[in-house]
Target: Palmitoyl protein thioesterase family protein
Amino acid sequence: MAKILHRRFDLLLTVTTVLVLFSMVPVSNSVPFLLFHGIGDKCSGGVGNFTQLLSNLSGSSGSCLEIGIGELDSWFMPLKKQASVACEKVKEMKELSQGYNIVAQSQGNLVARGLIEFCDNAPPVFNYVSLGGPHAGIAAIPKCDSGPICAIAEAMMKLEIYNDFVQDHIAPSGYVKIPGEMSKYLKHSKYLPKLNNERPYERNSTFKDRFASLHNLVLVMFEDDTTLIPKETSWFGYYPDDGFDTLLSTQQTKLYREDWIGLKTLDDAGKVKYVSVSGDHLNIADEDVVKYVVPYLKQSNL
Model:
């Protein structure tokens, strides 16, 4: 997936660093947050600047949670293991023991959701802001534009996406969901079917209960997204099982109607915010950050 670029955030970061000194919300009394970066990225550089920007704007302490070796492991560590690593790290962070909020970018959303659903004896997550998350899967192999590492991964996925070796070694293979190949997907995909409670005889009510316990779920879709196919996967919308002829809205999917993960429960309670912003994948404008992200980092129960 595309490398995250935050070209406009440096100046705003400097300004907000000054402004936060006059904030009426003390950091020590606020709810901390974690940021999960996307594929092909790492917590330093632009992602680190974005994390600091969110902290300055919200008055809340925040950090980017790195899984393994950043860019490399975002491609080659299977998502199940990434979620497990995140689980153990979070439980060791004493500052999160009373609960925290999450902001996640792109593939990082699937790690964040794995943490929420799978992690036993973990502190609660209050608000969860998803930026361009492939929640219902992607129907095409993500484009590669960040050098030889992702080129190798892309070549392996093109051989056979539901091959056990690929599933065990290429992270995004765990959420590629090809319409018309549902039997292969449900049998061989090793991450998304579990995360979305898609297998009829393996549905786990604990996963659903944990996800449904969120105070707020903010789903941000990028209107000009060329990375996620379809872009509506950011809202849990997707194609029907048998092909690409139509696109199902969130509310038309079985995942929503049968409430496999608690999304309908959250929506019925008014806790889901479906947000559409202009721009390509993860190219979020400063004003949209202020409007749609920052408010959910200021307190736990907006």
The mean pLDDT is 88.
